[in-house]
Q: What sequence folds into this?
């Protein structure tokens, strides 16, 4: 009962916040709502016994990615354009497509059959601590993707610097 | 006990909201944030699957999704900045050089 | 891996090195790579000869080239008696001519290019002769053709040279077309293109016929004639002989190597290599013999009246190639190959001497403007004289033995046309002696008829050119001593080594005649040779005004001969002009103008019309594309899930 | 007493519900204690700073309010509380209101995972260290938002500077703590302290000297303190991001900053100086100490924290301010590589079994 209550709160908040994120005309406000949204999602992760993911969600998403967004928003500073039209294309058609997709996907959920249960039960993860269990998996079975991920980040860093660097006027 | 379906439905809803934002907004930064929203929706479903199937692989996947999201944000925002330098606008409907 | 595989690949390596690094790094030293590589091949070839003399036959596959169902071809090498003779000929001539070229090509801008082509040619030629299957033979065949094209057109800024290159290439296509068809038929018949199974199965199919366009054709005749088409092209036999005299536009070492000693003899080699097939078809042999005989007579008569130094030798080459085919045609393959082998030496020598003369004359080729060169270039004169004696069949020299062997085999062989071709051969021997010495006398004797500057410039060629001359001269004298006929050999205690040597591959038909007859034939050939020399001496030294008078008197004949029987003009009339007319009026006018243009312009304009409608969808607005994508996803997911 | 309360509750709402309600109540009490204690502490930290700096500059510092000026903080608080609340006309109001709250609450939230002595922690979670990092990165929002929303150039520049500084140094700080995580094998702060207690030296500052150095420098930048107080460099930017704030909103920034200092000092104490414990060899020498009740050890903890706080003041009084590019260079080109070296070294030594 209490769990369902919790979930209900989180789900409601998440959906409302998502809507706020995509509908605010001021990007700064969008970012702020998104920040709140990320906290709620992190709370949902905690609820699902994924404390490390929750922490990462806050540190990386809220602490790094969203700050980047915020920076860019502030750098561009588009305040005078806020009075302009905020919608490109036609929103009703997009709405119908999205709603249709939602209906189809949720309808398909009914036929979902859970797969076999894995080795990491909640108790097992708790006894080992989530970070350790995840780390073991990352550094053994997923070592190669992990290294690739580091390469992806490296490329992104280089790419971002190259793209955003102002050409020095000689 | 909350059934898995609830989480999945929530995830689908957030995903669709993100998609709606991407399809309709003309501010390129908000479009970008909509994409992040969609990624988060996927993360929710991955974590909930992980929880209900008692398998940490979903978490590993989320980890990678976040990595990619970070890389994407860095590159994407750099692109937005250089776009803005050239066009003085962040509105996609004014970036239509590819028009037929 | 067998080290003999290096024989062709050393020159290939030289080619690669020269073509890649020659222009920038090797420059004037480009010859070292090529000469070393070819000399290495020569050493290996000598080793191969020793091996074969010890009774070994080498046959191995190096690398599977293509494999498709039952069709398998590999890069493989077969070294038997026939191959080894060719190897010796090719590598020896090639080495000497490489060395000669150092002097001859000195200072040329394309020095590295010349040597890399020469090496590539050597590689292709060796691939050709060492092949153990028809397809690799074909590869080498086309490779030498390509190099021939490169080298004829070596001075590509000269229009006549590039035209000659094109002519050689195109004329050879006619022959190669037949050759290619021949290989198809071989594969169709035997299911393989390897020599060994083909030749061993050939006799079992001796009587087979093949329904070709409604006619029952004798299968072996068909194959033999198709293969012979290739020979006609490559060895410049009638009617595809027209390219060889023009090929003299290339540098002289090229003429010596490619257009005298090696490549043009590939046709003879092919016939000899396929002797098991040719032997099964009397018709084919007859065609070969008659083609050879007619070509030799035809070319010899043209040679009588030409004035261009190299062209005379070129017609001589055509004529001698005819001789070789004549030999093969009467079944005396050994004699043909023997002549090929001796001819390589004296004809290469003749060409190199011509090159030496040209070098001294500053590129002048008209023998009417020469004379008395013996005073200035004694080595060239001596070696060229010996070569001419050799080709004229003076006893003791190389040419004598091989020519005599051919004539005797023609006379005494089983061929129904034997006596006829013998008569032509004897006549050609006379003509050969005549025009060879006409060349000698006009060039080296009498008064110098060129300009004063030319006379001042006359000098003997450098060492790098004269040394190969001397070495080849040794060959021109002594190369024949391995094939001394039994008639003489019995008396001085030597065998006809080459006949015995070649017997396992080519067989050795016995002549049906007495020693007396053989003696008579030999004496006749000696006599006609001497007569030819004598007549030339009479006409060009004793009575130098006589040739002009004769030309005046028999103007019609002279014209025909001088214009090479108008073959080029004939081809121009029946092939080239119709082809150009067709190209102009049909292909450009109708096909290109109305059909291709219509398609080429119509398709784009249709697409343009379509796209001008479709482009309205392309708004350039990301959201529109994304919306369309999302619609697609919606449809696909709906179909997948709700089906 | 607790059991009687429990049974009373159980009789009303049932056993499981009673446990839960009790837990919540206990947590709420802890929260109240921690926040109250911290705020009191922060109030006197300002007083103490003024005193320390004054003495370093051969002055006397506050003296008027109460004996030795001891009530000065209350006087300041009352003044700020009753001051007029000015909001610039060009401000983005909701965000302007929200920014100090974010800043202050993120600092206060970070307190929840700090163990002050054995067993006393509001939320003993397994990823405590990560939580601290998350909260400190959140503080950047408050700063950048306040700077932007005020609609003033000074504020804006201060906000941007501060945000980029905080983000940059956060990386170095996080990486410097990785060595500690590797050695302790846990992210739980209590576990880290226990691990240090069992370590021969008694605290990690000795083997982790490199990490400690990086952390120490990053600490100043994270809290926007001298010598890295560029965001509020008064000679360039007036007061930086909170130029336009006044009254109680300004007080929240002020309190947030001092709370941040306290938290940084606590992290340093917990991760490098052994938290509330004394090294084991001292405990072995003085066995009677282990008889003491656990809450006494908060004295040790606070003593260590005060050392850090004192160094904050000391540095402020002595060192000049860095230039902005120097600041960034130190962060990206010195501290982060050093921290990475430390991570690699620690990992290697851990694998080789030396840690």
A:
């Amino acid at each position: 009962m209490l769990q369902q209550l919790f979930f209900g709160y989180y789900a409601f908040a998440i959906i409302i916040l998502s809507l706020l994120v995509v509908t605010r005309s001021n990007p700064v406000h969008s970012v702020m709502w998104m920040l709140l949204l990320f906290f709620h999602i992190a709370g949902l992760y905690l609820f699902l016994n994924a404390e490390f993911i929750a922490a990462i969600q806050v540190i990386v998403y809220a602490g790094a990615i969203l700050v980047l967004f915020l920076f860019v928003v502030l750098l561009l500073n588009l305040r005078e354009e806020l009075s302009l039209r905020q919608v490109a294309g036609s929103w009703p058609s997009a709405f119908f497509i999205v709603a249709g997709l939602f209906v189809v996907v949720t309808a398909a959920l009914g036929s979902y059959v859970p797969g076999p249960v894995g080795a990491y039960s909640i108790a097992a993860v708790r006894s080992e601590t989530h970070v350790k269990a995840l780390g073991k998996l990352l550094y053994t079975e997923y070592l190669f993707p992990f290294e690739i991920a580091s390469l992806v980040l490296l490329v992104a860093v280089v790419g971002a610097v190259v793209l955003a660097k102002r050409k020095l006027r000689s | 006990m909350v059934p898995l379906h609830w989480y999945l439905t929530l995830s689908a809803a957030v995903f669709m909201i993100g998609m709606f934002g991407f399809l309709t907004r003309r501010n390129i930064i908000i479009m970008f944030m909509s994409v992040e929203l969609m990624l988060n929706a996927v993360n929710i479903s991955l974590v909930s699957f992980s929880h209900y199937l008692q398998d940490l692989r979903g978490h590993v996947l989320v980890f990678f999704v976040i990595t990619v999201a970070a890389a994407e944000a860095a590159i994407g925002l750099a692109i937005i900045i250089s776009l803005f330098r050239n066009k003085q606008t962040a509105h996609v409907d004014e970036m239509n050089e590819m028009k037929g | 891996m067998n080290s003999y595989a290096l024989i062709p690949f050393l020159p290939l390596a030289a080619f690669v090195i020269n073509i890649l690094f020659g222009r920038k790094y090797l420059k004037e030293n480009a010859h070292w790579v090529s000469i070393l590589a070819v000399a290495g091949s020569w050493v290996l070839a000598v080793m191969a000869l020793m091996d074969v003399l010890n009774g070994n036959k080498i046959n191995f596959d190096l690398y599977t080239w293509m494999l498709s169902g039952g069709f398998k071809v590999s890069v493989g090498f077969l070294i038997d008696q026939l191959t080894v003779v060719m190897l010796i000929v090719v590598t020896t001539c090639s080495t000497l001519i490489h060395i000669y070229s150092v002097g001859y090509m000195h200072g040329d801008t394309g020095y590295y290019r010349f040597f890399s082509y020469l090496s590539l040619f050597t590689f292709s030629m060796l691939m050709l002769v060492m092949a153990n299957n028809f397809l690799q033979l074909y590869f080498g065949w086309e490779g030498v053709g390509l190099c021939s094209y490169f080298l004829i057109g070596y001075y590509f800024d000269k229009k006549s040279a590039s035209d000659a290159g094109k002519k050689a290439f195109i004329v050879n296509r006619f022959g190669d077309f037949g050759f290619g068809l021949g290989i198809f038929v071989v594969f169709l018949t035997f299911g393989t293109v390897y020599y060994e199974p083909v030749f061993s199965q050939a006799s079992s199919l001796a009587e087979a016929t093949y329904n070709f366009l409604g006619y029952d054709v004798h299968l072996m005749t068909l194959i033999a004639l198709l293969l012979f088409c290739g020979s006609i092209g490559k060895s410049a036999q009638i009617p595809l002989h027209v390219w060889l005299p023009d090929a003299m536009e290339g540098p002289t070492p090229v003429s010596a190597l490619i257009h005298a000693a090696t490549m043009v003899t590939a046709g003879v080699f092919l016939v000899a290599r396929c002797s098991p097939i040719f032997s099964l078809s009397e018709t084919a042999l007859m065609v070969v013999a008659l083609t050879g005989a007619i070509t030799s007579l035809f070319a010899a008569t043209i040679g009588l009246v030409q004035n261009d130094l190299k062209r005379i030798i070129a017609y001589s080459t055509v004529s001698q190639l005819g001789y070789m085919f004549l030999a093969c045609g009467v079944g005396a393959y050994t004699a043909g190959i023997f002549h090929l082998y001796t001819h390589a030496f004296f004809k290469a020598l003749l060409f190199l001497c011509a090159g030496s003369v040209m070098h001294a004359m500053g590129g002048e080729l008209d023998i009417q403007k020469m004379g008395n060169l013996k005073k200035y270039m004694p080595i060239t004169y001596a070696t060229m004289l010996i070569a001419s004696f050799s080709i004229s069949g003076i006893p003791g020299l190389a040419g004598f033995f091989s020519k005599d062997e051919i004539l005797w085999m023609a006379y005494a062989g089983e061929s129904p046309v034997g006596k006829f071709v013998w008569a032509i051969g004897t006549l050609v021997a006379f003509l050969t002696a005549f025009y060879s010495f006409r060349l000698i006398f006009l060039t080296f004797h009498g008064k110098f008829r060129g300009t004063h500057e030319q006379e001042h410039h006359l000098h003997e060629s450098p060492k790098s050119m004269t040394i190969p001359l001397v070495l080849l001269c040794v060959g021109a004298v002594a190369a024949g001593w391995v094939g001394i006929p039994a008639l003489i050999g019995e008396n001085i205690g030597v065998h006809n080594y080459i006949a015995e040597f070649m017997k396992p591959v080519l067989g050795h038909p016995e002549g049906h005649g007495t020693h007396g007859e053989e003696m008579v034939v030999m004496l006749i050939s000696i006599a006609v040779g001497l007569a030819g020399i004598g007549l030339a001496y009479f006409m060009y030294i004793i009575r130098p005004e006589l040739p002009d008078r004769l030309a005046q008197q028999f103007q019609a004949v002279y014209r025909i001969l001088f214009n090479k029987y108008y073959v080029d003009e004939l081809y121009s009339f029946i092939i080239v002009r119709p082809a150009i007319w067709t190209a102009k009026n049909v292909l450009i006018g109708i096909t290109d103008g109305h059909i291709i243009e219509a398609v080429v312009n119509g398709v784009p304009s249709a697409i343009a019309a379509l796209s001008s409608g479709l482009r309205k969808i392309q708004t350039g607005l990301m959201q529109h594309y994304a919306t369309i994508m999302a619609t697609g996803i919606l449809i696909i997911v709906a179909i997948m899930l709700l089906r | 007493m607790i059991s009687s309360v429990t049974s009373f509750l159980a009789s009303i709402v049932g056993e499981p519900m009673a446990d839960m309600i009790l837990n919540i109540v206990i947590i709420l009490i802890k929260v109240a204690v921690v926040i109250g204690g911290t705020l009191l502490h922060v109030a006197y930290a300002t007083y103490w700073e003024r005193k320390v700096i004054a003495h370093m500059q051969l002055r006397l510092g506050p003296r008027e309010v109460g004996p030795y000026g001891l009530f000065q903080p209350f006087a300041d608080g009352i003044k700020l509380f009753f001051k007029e609340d000015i909001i610039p006309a060009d401000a983005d109001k909701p965000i302007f209101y929200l920014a100090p709250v974010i800043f202050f609450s993120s600092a206060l939230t970070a307190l929840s995972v700090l163990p002050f002595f054995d067993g006393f922690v509001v939320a003993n979670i397994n990823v405590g260290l990560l939580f601290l990092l998350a909260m400190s990165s959140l503080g950047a929002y408050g700063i950048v938002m306040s700077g932007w929303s005020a609609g003033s150039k000074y504020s804006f520049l201060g906000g941007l500077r501060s945000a980029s500084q905080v983000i940059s140094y956060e990386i170095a700080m996080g990486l410097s703590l990785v060595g500690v995580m590797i050695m302790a094998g846990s992210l739980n702060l209590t576990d880290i302290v226990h691990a240090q207690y069992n370590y021969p030296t008694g605290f990690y500052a000795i083997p982790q000297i490199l990490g400690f150095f990086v952390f120490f420098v990053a600490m100043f930048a994270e809290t926007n303190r001298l010598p890295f107080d560029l965001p509020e460099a008064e000679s360039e930017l007036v007061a930086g991001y909170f130029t336009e704030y006044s009254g109680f909103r300004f007080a929240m920034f002020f309190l947030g900053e001092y709370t941040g200092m306290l938290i940084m000092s606590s992290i340093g104490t917990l991760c490098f100086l052994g938290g509330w414990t004394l090294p084991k060899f001292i405990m072995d020498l003085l066995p009677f100490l282990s008889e003491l009740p656990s809450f006494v050890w908060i004295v040790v903890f606070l003593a260590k924290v005060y050392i850090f706080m004192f160094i904050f003041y000391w540095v402020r009084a002595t060192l000049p301010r860095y230039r902005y590019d120097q600041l960034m260079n130190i962060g990206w080109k010195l501290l982060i590589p050093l921290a990475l070296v430390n991570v690699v070294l620690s990992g290697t030594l851990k694998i080789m079994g030396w840690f």
